[in-house]
Structure formats: structure tokens, C-alpha cells
Amino acid sequence: MGDVMVTRGSPKPPSKSSILLSPAMKLSHLFWLCIFLKLLDFITTYECLTLSGTVDNEANPLPRWLMEQIGLVPALLVGSALAAVILTFLFWACRKLDVKWPFYLLNAVMFGVVINNCYWWWFLS
Fold first, then answer.
1. pLDDT per residue over 81-106, tens digit each?
2. To 10 degrees, the CA torsion angle through 50, 52, 55, 61?
3. Are 90 and 18 in contact (CB under 8 A)?
């Protein structure tokens, strides 16, 4: 008979401080982080544009046009719903292709957007 190696216990999980940078970071975690950042973007955009009193401060021309047509909150809801559909499709595609880099890139961009909104929120208040 062949030799059988017996190990005790389970492998040590990665430390909590390095979980975001580890290869063990799951695609689903990246997806939910992106959804959370989109929620923060919604909140900070709403706060900035209501403080300024005009949608002219929106930097992205497509949402600005939509806000002028249907109003601030409906445009933010439409944009968030569209983003959720796109992110869900991207999640499905990334699972099929076994890649994570699109979500690392999206999370970095979304984080920058939220930081920019927070700066303007602070600046306007």
C-alpha cells in the first residue's frame, strides 16, 4: 500500500489585513464592493447636487442630460439600475472567463469617483 499523509487541522486563513490583496479575494467580494461603492456614489452625487442647487455641476454629460430631462432622483435611480445590470453581466462574464482584473479596475475608478464627490461635498457645504 502507498503512504498516506495525514495532516491535522485546516490550512491557516490569510490575515485580515491582506485579504484585499490576496489571490483568495473572491470575485463575489469584488462585485459587492463595486455595488457598495456605487451606492456611495449615488449618495454623494445626490448630496453634492442638492447642495449646489443645480445639476450643471455633474461632470458626466450623459447623466447631466438625463437629470435635466427627468430630474435628479429619477436619473440617479435609472443610472444605478443600469449600472447594476451591467455589473451583473460583467460578474457573469468574469466568472466564465475566470478573471478578476475588471473588478479591481472598476473598484479603483469607483473609489476615485466617491473621493472626488466627497471632496466637492465638503467644498460646497
1. 999 999 999 999 999 998 999 999 99
2. -120
3. no
